[in-house]
């Protein structure tokens, strides 16, 4: 692999370390599934355990860097120059149900721009990573987005709406509108892996509302470096870490934007 920034090396090392206990925890899920208590609490602690290993590794190298994580929140608030954006388990519902479609997702941001990122599914052993200007990789192979030209021939992926969403009807009607204009749509349950799969050409595009920044920070740079296009819409109605995203192979981007029931787009 030709990625060699100190940050990408740190992230991949932290991911490999955290994945050992995450794989063990995932192995436990099957037993808990049939227990009366269920795996709920266990998953929360697996999330926290994974996050702690990741944070310890990254903080040891750079105690001064800011961190945004799903479980702990924001650390070193004043450092806006260098930040790690961490989702210890993206695809928690899959993890909870023993479905091996989840990933550790870590992005590194400099001056507000994601510079490198890693999305690692420890069960399938697929590591997607990218660094600005140096391309995107799946394990040791360079990846590129698909070459699909028309949205009507495209396979898209999406997620949501989440249980507490107040705009479920809007999301469902958008889903109907888009499905009627594409070859097919999948819903896999991990935003990070959805984006990584667009980056390596398995899907042609992805859209989703009401995401958190940590779900997609690493995906942004991986997809861009694989030749894809990412943008956000209706930013104005969202708190700053909330995101509505469109991410595609670039060819179908305008067509997908046109199908989104948007008020306003960047
Ligand atoms: P999570 O698994 O880390 O919660 C599922 O559609 C995707 O959306 C997952 O990547 C999931 O991340 C993300 N997501 C973000 N906020 C969510 C929420 N409140 N409920 C469910 N999924 C959410
Ligand atoms: Ca997530």
Q: What topology does this entry show?
A:
Layout: H1 6-33, H2 40-61, E1 66-69, E2 73-75, E3 82-90, H3 92-96, E4 103-110, E5 113-121, E6 126-131, E7 136-138, E8 141-142, E9 155-158, H4 168-179, E10 184-186, H5 191-199, E11 205-212, H6 213-225, E12 229-232, E13 242-248, H7 253-259
Parallel strand pairs: 1-3, 9-10, 9-11
Antiparallel strand pairs: 1-2, 3-4, 4-5, 5-6, 6-7, 7-8, 11-13, 12-13
The structure holds adenosine-2'-monophosphate and calcium ion.
The site of adenosine-2'-monophosphate has 14 residues, from strand 3, helix 3 and strand 11.
Which tags fit this structure?
single chain, 266 residues, alpha+beta, Fructose-1,6-Bisphosphatase, Chain A, domain 1, D-Maltodextrin-Binding Protein, domain 2, 2 domains, eight-stranded mixed β-sheet, 36% helix, 26% strand, globular, binds adenosine-2'-monophosphate, binds calcium ion
Shape: globular
Strand content: 25-35%
Strand order, sheet with most strands: 2-1-3-4-5-6-7-8
Residues in helix, %: 25-40%
Q: Which homologous superfamily in CATH is the superfamily of the largest domain?
A: Fructose-1,6-Bisphosphatase, subunit A, domain 1
Task: Describe the main β-sheet briefly.
Answer: 8 strands, mixed
Number of helices: 7
